[in-house]
Amino acid sequence: MPELPEVETVRRGLSALVIDKKVIGVDVIYPKIIVGDPSEFKEQVSGRTISAIDRRGKYLLFRFSADLTMVSHLRMEGKYSVKDAAVPLDKHTHVVFNFDDGTQLRYNDVRKFGRMQLVETGMEKMLPSLQKLGPEPTPETFDAQAFYQALHRRKKAVKTALLDQTLVVGLGNIYVDEVLWQTKIHPETKCANITEQQALVLHDNIILELERAIAAHGTTVFTFTDANSHSGSFQNQLNVYGKKGEPCPRCQTPIQKIVVGQRGTHFCPHCQQVI
DNA sequence: ATCTGTGTTCGTTA
DNA sequence: ATAACGAACACAGA
Question: Any idea which residues are catalytic in this one (predicted)?
């Protein structure tokens, strides 16, 4: 569930808690979270200080001293927290970074889907998963015309295309349903059938929606919380996600739920028609 | 008790 | 190249 707004919320909260802290040791409780050799991971990170936390798409980039970067993806339920070492570990804590001040950065993930990988700072761009990423959804980096042209060349359903992170990064299953509702586009519309006019509005709505969600500290559906265990509040601003059977806020037609590309998909059958 | 739904990315297949 | 689909996992709820 962490989509871009949730990852950004985590990044901001966590930055305040761990920047300038020095790691003196790492406990890897569930090794599969680490991409590569876990012992090498521990060895590499130990002794280094966290200088910054950046973000690219839904990936967190922990910057360690001396040009080491940890690329971290939370997938569905990954969470970070900072606790005193005396506080007992949670059942689903898989990696623990011990700081020299007696606190710990803990990685918790019920589903165990999240991954962490070390690379030399700057080289993260070369990882296949980051290399394929489209632009960040900001006015400076996300070009409306280029978006329309790229959409035009695709044949699959617009929802599926928006989820694959190549046209633009950051949308997941919740926000994609929301922006398509706002733009009055049916989620199964083939990309190539989207008009230039629609593409431009969709572009603007993607930027605005993600900005609004960040301002609300993300959406807490199911289990998302930030590094301080705080929930986001954007779920109060959702129009269609999780609203099956409830009236569309625009036209009162009951919201429908279907499956598109194996994903639960919410839309208004009156406002959003296939073209 | 077994089955389904939950979401992101990756690897395999067409 | 592009698209489609199962796998990786755990758990709540029917």
Answer: 2 (schiff-base intermediate with dna), 3 (proton donor), 58 (proton donor), 263 (proton donor)
